Amino acid sequence: MSEYWDKQIETISREELEKMQLESLKEIVNFAYNNAAHYKHAFDVAKVSPNDINSLADLAKFPFVDKQTERETQGVGSLLGEMCAVPETDVVFVSASSGSTGVPTLSPFTKTDFDEWQDVESRLFYMAGMRNTDRYVHALNFTLFVGGPDVIGAQNLGALCIWAGTVPSDRLLFILKEFKPTIIWTTPSYAWYLGETAKKSGIDPAKDLSIRRIIVAGEAGGSIEATRTAIETLWNAQLFDFYGISDIFGACAGMCEAKDGLHIAEDHILVETVDLRTGNPIPDGEQGELILTTLRKHARPMIRFRTGDIGYVNRNKCSCGRTHTRIYITGRKDDMFIVSGVNIFPSDVEFVIRGLSGITGEYMIRVSEKNFTAQYSVDIEKQQGSSESYDELAARVSAALKTRIGVKPSKVTVLADGALPRATHKAKRLIDERKLNFNI
To answer: How far is the C-alpha of 187 from the C-alpha of 243, rounded, in Å?
Structure first.
């Protein structure tokens, strides 16, 4: 069997790859300018035009877009807004962000966009060792989440696919026992939790289950050697990290057998790194913010999208023979932290705390780690005069956080009114007590 899903593309020379990228970049920038109101206006304001693209380096002349751009343009003129470059009748699928900090942002796909996205998924699955003889459990959320449809890439590869979704742990363990799948995709923290839960119920995941490859995404653990090794030992399985971004499509980068960074699909996405302070391009190998440009997605082209992910790139040929750039994510630009694959911002917690009665509205978030899993707790203050017990108040706040954010805090500590520090300017709401960085 071939070592590659698409050997011609995956092992193409850098010279040929960059030539192909330049042709695609010229086309997509021109398409975006002529079909998406936002890009025409933004390029005109920046005094740049598609004709200015004569090399890949010329992309640095063009303005950035970010999550705020999506929010501001969505719904303007149409549901999909001013960044959409095709009529809605050409759109066959939309995913959506969680919307935890505002209106959920939609990511539209034409049929060609969708089919090419799933071919990338097949490539990444194959790179992680999946073959048509495997049984695969897709244990990711299917509700608007961009990672849900990625199971189709496994089906297109020929694997027997089990669309498990986010079922309770006991149900998922039943599936693993009865159907004997060989590969599962989940988050690093859940892979650890599920293995530990199995052991507590008398199941040794390393001996009693058939999982031999674990794909993870959404948290840093898959790229942290200590965490990866612990999960691999627990399951007696190989672990492969994937990287995806809801604003573009599901997984767009993944580990090969070398486990040295994540190969990004450069025939579909152009990656830059820029200085965090100036926004200017920086050399390969230096740490900065990752900027992604879609080269083939037409429903909503993303020209110089600021991901907020901090890392560096390596464009040298990998020992696996693949030539596509490897990305290494080292952190996040903002205060976001990730628990069980869910992105959480301090503003999410504040939204809940400020809207509840019986508390002062002051709060402190503590992010910690336990058994290679990120968790968060919240300190709050009981309002003077409230007759509610401390335990009842903690339970009510915990339930409200779970409902709003989707992840229950490990603990809610109720303090007396005035116990938390006040700030006259910018309050510090987050204390990170972790030794490992889970914000990847």
So the answer is: 11
Per residue in 87-98, pLDDT tens? 999 999 999 886
Count of C-beta atoms within a 10 Å radius of residue 272: 19
Residue corresponding to tokens 């204390």: 431
| Residue from 102, 114, 119, 201 nearest 156 by CA | 119
CA 339 to chain centre: 12
| Helix 188-200 with 169-179: angle, nearest 10 deg | 80
pLDDT in tens, 285-297: 998 999 999 999 9
What is the fold, at CATH topology level, of the domain defined by 1-333? Rossmann fold (3.40.50)
Tell me the CB-side half-sphere exposure of residue 342, using CA atoms within 13 A.
23
Tokens found for residue 33:
């300018």
Fold for 339-432, please state it.
GMP Synthetase; Chain A, domain 3 (3.30.300)
Percent of the chain with pLDDT over 70: 94
Question: How does pLDDT run across 200-231, given as a tens digit for each residue?
Answer: 899 999 999 999 999 998 776 688 776 788 88
Per the listing, tokens 């926004």 go with 279
The domain segmentation of the chain, as residue ranges, is 1-333, 339-432
C-alpha–C-alpha distance, residues 250 and 243, integer Å: 8
Rounded CA gap, 135 and 184, in Å?
Answer: 9
What is the C-alpha separation between 31 and 299, in angstroms, rounded?
Answer: 10
